[in-house]
Amino acid sequence: MPRWFPSRWMCAAVLALAALAWLPTPIDASHAFSSHWQRTSAGIRNLPVRRMLSSVWLTRYTTAMNDWRKPAMTRIKPYTAVVSGQNPGCPLYLGQISVCDGNYGPTGWAGIAQVFYNSAKHTQYARAVQNNYYMVGSSATVVAFRQLVICQEIGHTFGLGHINVTYNTPNAGSCMDYTNDPDGGPGGVSPSDPNNMHPFAHDYAMINSRHNHIGFIMPELGSQEMPELESQEAEAPRAMEAMLQSTPLSLAQLGERMSIGNGGRTEMYEMKFAGGWGNTSWVIRFNEPIGR
Question: Dmax of the chain from CA atoms?
Fold first, then answer.
């Protein structure tokens, strides 16, 4: 009876499957992208950020912005364009990111990020909002959670989703990974856990990949010296205007819940409007305040 020998390709497949079996628990390699910012030239798209924060968030904001401006961000980069005091209303501006905080009370969310996009899935408006009701004081735990929250909410404005929403698993080492131990190390799931207060390499790679293409101006728009495509498509549907002019305090205002993580600790919502426009909202849920 002739013997059967596996091909080298089959051996490689078996080895690959065996290797996958040893990978740690689930990280979403796609990061659940939503919309993305339009690029109309080969250069880096510099995104203006309006800082409208109280003093307790300033160091956390600076750290997060330094993280999201690292050389690894080769396609888009945020920069602080406007500085003002705390503005809980968190107004939106075309082609810009608003970063705000306020005491919004027991809304159920400690942080929320929203992006508003047009029919081409190009982000037109974005904001990252922090709820001070859930993070009170200056303990190391509160500071670590603040850093996680603001880093993650700004990351969402680039279209990044959550990479892991299971609360009690080892840290991935990214602020896009939800956790009960943002500073890692002793006291967490594992004493060797990295912290989850900053982006990691895969976050940058996903952002660059999603923003890699160069857009174009439609020929029928005429002039050779046209402003960026966002300026041509900035007319949001009337039904969307109320959302653009207010900060949502209730989860019921966010539209349809599309995903939920680990018993509701993270959620993603979508709302659709006329003409292909839409809004994606990511939420970090807190059941009770930290630091009270």
Answer: 83
What's the confidence (pLDDT) of residue 167? 66
Q: Per-residue DSSP letters for 16-54?
A: HHHHHHTSPSP--TTTT---B----SSS-EEEEEEEE--
List the structure tokens of 195: 């912290």
CATH of 32-285, one of 3.90.1640.10, 3.40.390.10, 3.40.47.10, 3.40.50.720: 3.40.390.10
Distance CA(22)–CA(47), nearest Å, equals: 39
Q: How confident is the model at residue 213 (pLDDT cuts 50, 70, 90)?
A: confident
pLDDT at position 23 = 33
Q: Average pLDDT, stretch 69-95? A: 96
Contact call for residues 17 and 50 (beta carbons, < 8 A): no
- The span from the CA of 137 to the CA of 143, in Å, is 8
| Structure-block tokens of residue 23 | 């990978």
pLDDT at 225: 39
Tokens of 20: 């996958």
State the pairing for strand pair 76-84/45-52: parallel
Per DSSP bridges, beta strands 76-84 and 123-131 are unpaired
